[in-house]
Design brief:
Subcellular location: Membrane
Keywords: G-protein coupled receptor, Membrane, Receptor, Transducer, Transmembrane, Transmembrane helix
Order of helices and strands: HHHHHH
Number of helices: 6
Helix content: over 70%
Structural class: mainly alpha
Number of strands: 0
Protein name: Mas-related G-protein coupled receptor member H
Organism: Calypte anna
Oligomer: single chain
InterPro entries: GPCR_Rhodpsn_7TM, MRGPCRFAMILY
């Protein structure tokens, strides 16, 4: 979903005058989900019903797909968006929402990507760090987004504690 959000945001910033179909987001998300489900189904069937080597090759392919299909568009489109916002002369930008999405992607790269890299390296019997470290990072990634939304939504000019519902509403209003 982060990939779909990043691509949609980048397209809307780069081509603001072009009218995008309203179903563009749904189509992009559906395609990404379909690709994910197909890959997981293929890997699962190969690993359940075949010997070690076909399973290993399927896992390597899945990790490469993750690095080549899902992560790069997210990073590239977020970078383009970041540059466009910095160079924009408009006064009113949805800064809190931008900060929330940017932090979500940044923390995804910091906390979730190491697990994918570690799993990929495990297929070659190579490990830089222990499994506990990468699983801890992945766990942090799974739980960090609500905190990002809360902090970004509650810090305007001064940080104050607000109800979670009001915080989420303020973040997503922009």
């Amino acid at each position: 979903l982060l990939t779909a959000i990043s691509i949609e945001r980048c397209v809307s910033i780069l081509c603001p005058s072009t009218h995008h179909p309203q179903c563009l987001s749904a189509v992009v998300c559906a395609l990404l989900w379909a690709l994910s489900v197909a890959v997981i189904a293929a890997v699962t069937s190969l690993c359940l019903f075949h010997e070690h080597e076909p399973c290993r090759m399927a896992l390597i392919s899945m990790y490469l797909l993750n690095f080549l299909i899902f992560a790069p568009p997210m990073v590239i489109s977020s970078t383009i968006y970041f540059i466009k916002v910095l160079c924009s002369s408009q006064q009113h930008q949805p800064r809190r929402l931008y900060i929330a999405i940017f932090l979500s992607i940044l923390f995804f790269l910091i906390f979730a990507l190491p697990l994918s890299i570690w799993n990929f390296l495990q297929q070659f019997s190579y490990s830089l760090v222990s499994s506990q470290v990468v699983f801890l990072l992945a766990s942090i990634n799974s739980s960090i987004n609500p905190f990002i939304y809360f902090l970004v939504g509650s810090c305007r000019r001064h940080c104050s504690l607000m109800s979670l519902q009001v915080t989420f509403q303020r973040v997503f209003e922009e």
